[in-house]
Write a structure and sequence with these properties.
242 residues, alpha/beta, Rossmann fold, S-adenosyl-L-methionine-dependent methyltransferases, 2 domains, seven-stranded mixed beta sheet
Length: 242
């Protein structure tokens, strides 16, 4: 089976750099709500491990269960962890997806960034129910609802991620609305020397952009309160009182 994240993994942290400040702001709101004594922090779709590292650095005693099905992304995560032997006893990296991995009965918190759109409505409700069942009262999960807020045509756009030495890394993307909340995204990742393209890898995937009202209703139905962090795309899911 092909790995849809193999194309972006080649320079993922460079491509993600423009979004990282917003992610960090959201993490700083969520981190004080982590309850490490309750259970491990669950990172679903842990990617290159940026958020795993933040938890391990900022929450003394916290353990992390990181789920990352993409072999390419998992290699970045494990490389990051390999550089920190002091973390090895505190983090477990599993190759399964959310519904395949063995989950602990209780978790101290959860982070799911760039993930929710991979689940259809039935799966999304089941995921929220699983989180609600495992979070402590007052515990929280950090999610994002990625733009656009509802499916629409996204004309081709590009941004220069970074120039490192003599080479430049660039992304070109576009998207089309499909049925319901689904969009089809096409992303091309380029490595350039001047105007000469050395590497060009293109991947397509389907991603869901559910209406906020739908997610609020689903979360409420399982005992979670959804709260937007300012005007950002980041949201906090909090376990309500029983």
């Amino acid at each position: 089976m092909s790995d849809p994240y193999a194309a972006t993994a080649g320079a993922y942290d460079l491509f993600n750099a423009a979004a990282r400040a917003g992610q960090m702001d959201a993490l700083q709101v969520w981190l004080p709500l982590v309850r490490p004594r309750t259970g491990p922090v669950l990172d679903v779709g842990a990617g290159s491990g940026l958020n795993v590292a933040e938890v391990l650095e900022c929450v003394p005693g916290a353990e992390v269960l990181a789920l990352e099905p993409s072999a390419a992304m998992r290699s970045l995560l494990l490389t990051r962890i390999a550089a920190r032997p002091d973390w090895h006893a505190r983090v477990t990296v599993r190759p399964e997806d959310f519904f395949s991995a063995p989950l602990p009965q209780q978790i101290g918190g959860a982070v799911l960034l760039g993930v929710l759109g991979h689940f259809d409505p039935g799966e999304r409700l089941a995921l929220l129910a699983e989180l609600a069942d495992r979070l402590p009262v007052g515990g929280a999960a950090l999610i994002d609802l990625q733009a656009p807020e509802s499916p629409r045509r996204i004309e081709p756009f590009e941004f220069r991620a970074a120039t490192v030495g003599q080479l430049t890394y660039k992304v070109i993307g576009e998207a089309w609305p499909l049925e319901g909340e689904v969009m089809r995204w096409r992303m091309s990742y380029l490595t350039l020397e001047g105007e000469r393209v050395l590497v060009e890898e293109t991947t397509e995937h389907r991603y869901r952009h559910p209406a906020v009202d739908d997610v609020v209703r689903e979360a409420t139905s399982v005992g979670l309160a959804l709260e937007r962090l300012g005007q950002s795309t980041f949201w906090m899911l909090r376990k309500a009182q029983a």
